[in-house]
């Protein structure tokens, strides 16, 4: 019997031994395509974002073997170290002598123990940079804030002010609300007087909102909606009263637009950035190692948000609900600082805004996946669920304290009645919010149902 090699001559693709000459030496092979566009790498500012290569799909995290310790479960080690620290602080007099008040130290220790549990035992969120434990800690802080709000919900306003005074002795003093509509003449002096530190805060705030929402139109709608909300509520808080040019020129067209512009540019950069994660040991040179350390604090991957309100009724309801939650979260601190007598630049107010940004980044990411990928996201994420509870509890606290002030002292934010123009404006806005889905989704669905019924009737008659 002849061998298979005799029956079938060696094909050009068959392997050859190292000592044999290959039959494919005369075959002309096509050169491999050059990477990027014409051999040049794709830069973030000249990329065509309508092409599919800009839509990066998130990939599985590959841990750096040089820092594998930070990704291994060390729950027992952390428990032992934490218990040792607690034993040292609680049983020795090196930190605080016996007989002195230790209630504040006990509260701090309880908070630290809860955050340690959250870092170790909570589920991972959608982000892995700089480390999943960081976002677990953010979730733990959100839960502590929610528990504090639930506690305040059962306290009267006077008791809450006393508690805030215990945290900061400078609080507990009535503060008048500042109005920004005293001189609305459009002159260089009035414009210069309006340019304060809050303009920078506005810009940074909208940069953060752009990083959270990742959509130009959504940011513009939210920006205009917030200014309309200030118009509607300036009879309750004098802080909302601003000149027309302060609303639409200084806020919308300058501060909000600049923050949104630079925020979206950052999103575009992260969208087309090549994500290649090499280990610290694999990086050669001091510059490469430094860049690897700094890149640990950048996104692991980036997902572009396409909210698409006109695609389906579910998307429309989700976008409207997210807009209302954002507006509520933006308005709540104005009422809380007015009720608790805090300045706008108080550290508690700044901490709350920073904390809300950190909580909203993973929350909106989880909400987007829950809406657009229901097969994988079978339930709402923990970050978005807890943030919704936090914003709603804040609103309940504000409503309860304001109603009590109105009943007992006939004062507070709700003392002044709503103007008729505000009522008509909100009614008209609610009418169009309801009318759009009826025209866009309801009428076509009814037509489709009628046509299908007619076809079914014709089939039965035939």
TrEMBL record:
Keyword NADP on entry: no
Source organism of the structure: Fistulina hepatica ATCC 64428
Bias (Basic and acidic residues): 1-10
GO CC terms: endoplasmic reticulum membrane
Membrane topology: Multi-pass membrane protein
Region span, Disordered: 1-41
Keywords from the named record: Endoplasmic reticulum, Lipid biosynthesis, Lipid metabolism, Membrane, Phospholipid biosynthesis, Phospholipid metabolism, Transferase, Transmembrane, Transmembrane helix
GO-annotated molecular function: L-serine-phosphatidylethanolamine phosphatidyltransferase activity
UniProt pathway annotation: Phospholipid metabolism; Lipid metabolism
Transmembrane segment boundaries: 75-93, 105-122, 134-154, 313-335, 347-364, 384-403, 423-446
Protein name: Phosphatidylserine synthase 2
Any GO BP: phosphatidylserine biosynthetic process
InterPro entries assigned: PSS (IPR004277)
